[in-house]
Please model this.
Amino acid sequence: MDRLSEKAEEILESLWVMTVEGDNVGCLLTSLKVEANSEELLELTRRSYVEIKGDRVYLRKEGRPEARMTVRRHRLAERLIMDILGIVGTEGNDQACAFEHLLRQGVDTKLCTLLNHPTTCPHGNPIPPGECCERAKEQGAAGIVPLTELRPRETGEIAYLAASDDKKVQKLMSMGVLPGSEMTLVQKFPSYIFKVGHSQFAVDDLLARDIYIRRSV
Amino acid sequence: MSEQQDTSPKVVLVGNPNVGKSVLFNALTGAYTTVSNYPGTSVEVSRGYCSIKEKRYEILDTPGMYSMMPITEEERVARKILLTEAPHAVVHVIDARNIERMLPMTLQLIEAGLPVVLVVNILDEAERLGMQINLKLLEKNLGVPVLGAVMKRKQGLDELLQAIAAYATVPHKPFSYVVDLEDDINRLVRLIHGQYRLSRRATSILLLQKDEDIEQLVAKNERYEDYQCLTQDVREITFRRRADLHLQISLERRKVCKRMLDGVVTQTVKEEEPLSERLSKLMMNPWTGAPILLLVVYLGLYKFVGGFGAGTMVDFLEGNIFENYINPPVVALAEKHLTANWLYELLVGEYGVWTLGVRYAVALVLPIVGAFFLMFSLLEDTGYFPRLALLVDRLFKRIGMSGRAVIPIVLGFGCDTMATLVTRTLETKRERIIATILLALAIPCSAQLGVILGLLSAAPLALAVWMVFLTLIFLLIGFLSARLLPGESPVFYMEIPPLRLPQFRNVAIKTLRRMQSYFLEILPLFLVASVILWAGKMTGVLQMFVSAMAPAVGAIGLPAEATTAFVFGFFRRDFGAAGLYDLQMSGALSVTQLTVAAATLTLFVPCVAQFLMMLKERGIKTALGILVFVTLMAFSSGWLLNKFLLVTGLLA
Model:
């Protein structure tokens, strides 16, 4: 089967957000800003992904998996654009919208693994888990997260240091924060306090964000 | 000092902060340097002597350093010693509990070709944690003398003395890193021809790590062509390894350490949370930490320094001893023998050396400052300050400093001059400047604080206005400087040492030391100040000064007599406040005027000593800039406060 057009994907996405995540029953054509006989709606009805009754469009059972994956791709794209590439604001949204359509044929799986199976988008909405996420969960892969994501009293192994400037890396290393060492987070607020060996250190979020921990399962 | 030719062999103590270097130094030399449970308090190198078997050794205690590659100013000071002195032995003191973390520095010292003796200190606390350390095996692995110690109880001291006396440089066991890193290091080693204190291998590694001091040193010691070759190679290697050079070096060192420690440490599990640990958590949790802070401020600062020091002690010394027993005979004696008016004025007149200089210093200032230093030393030794630092870090970031700056700021409430010196321990230049401004402007020193608390305590509302006003100015100026001053924002990181019960002897000696240095520093200045004021009074210059400043003082709603207090304030902040004290006693000021005067004086120009320290630490341009800014700020805020109080009638 051919790929859906970008516009059709946008419609599926909106339907998912409004009817599955939201509490709308079907969706007004006007709020989707499409005509009943438009190319993209025809495309979707042909595959019986959606159904049009009167003024409303309904997402059908057949269309749900596709809609879910579209939303997932969009939110993964947001994570990449906003967190990793650091593009925020309207510019970030626009870039993410353009980018999501490229995430096909396993690229989304790769990206999801790279981002360590994130569960929410930068706006806090859930990212529907993909197969890769389920697999990772089953294997009990602990995942690598910044120190800021650990719970107090949680212990993990330092995976890597992400600090870009040498001075920061040196500070961390002088505290014995080296990949392979075990670390326990003691407290998160107002400063991050952690324990390495028998010593305790306090750091601010700037440094804590640069320490990546492999969570123990 | 360094010009003095001293032929005694030198022994240098190095190590992380808070591992017991200073305790060891005191045990060796019998002298007392300030020992504290706060990382980063010794900024300078202490020197002392020690005799072992009739032979004299010079002992050097360095500020704490984490590695051979300095990050902070203290570390730079410590490393400089290793670069410039030719030590007979370098004693590396480590904390047994953290042997794994601290051993990499031992490796670096050995790598640098220094005559290392390793002292594994704090063995008792390590044993309490269930650690057993096989020191003999470690000695064999490292190839340098290794000693266990509990320096606090002088355990292991004799063995160390013997090891120092018997030290003969033995060839250290070579250890090597991964092959490709070795190749790169050796490539540089072959290009170095000059003579350095540190081995060529260590010099090469530091060059790769872009250590600026070493770069300069090498630039000076190598021929031009050699240096060009060298920098070219360094650039090539660092670029190739740009992603992880520092990390790789550290990881390699840790690998070597693991080998050295193989079979050395055995850990039996012992996991129960001691009381101190629970207390520590309470101090670090903001919900319980903030009330604890308030309690400390209330009991320590208000009750003890304000109530006991500035109240009871001052009343006793000033009101009882001086008024009744010392002053009358002195004045009587002077009246009988000093016929010349000028001499009489100089000694016991209104601004006399005795009446103003000695009496203020001994009876007013010393008890207050002493009480403060006692409290400060006590808190310092428990390890409270690092916990306070992490609590206030977020707030301090807003005013451009990291939590680390809490120490100079708190110390400023004791003596702003000392605090200005301690700003050195802050990491960025920007932070140091902001701290200096805030100390000069909004932090009253304990002498001033004591007098002002005494002045305003009769009117609690006035005290509240003064306090709120100063806090606002502190935050506002901090906030603005954080916005306006260029430079990088600070990053906060700090070791949190375990809470300890302060030892009475340590606290007492430390307090006395601080008081002594304060007294030696202020008494001469008090005397000079009274002579200048006397001369000014006799020649009429003082009157000119007072008239010149009178409009500014008048503008903030104060009577002309108050001007004298401001002129005094230039000589010492507390002097000015004490001048107000006299004025209030004579009933010349209303509550509003008193509040405005107290606030303006607190903000006004720092005392001469602090200004000199600013010159020394920040340079003439910055220091003068701060001086002008503070003066303008003090009077304009005073003016504003006066208007505000008059319009609202808050204190009427």
Summary: Residues 10-165 of chain B form a domain with the Rossmann fold fold (CATH 3.40.50.300). The mean pLDDT of chain B is 86. Chain B has 28 helices and nine strands. The first strand of chain B starts at residue 10 and ends at 14.
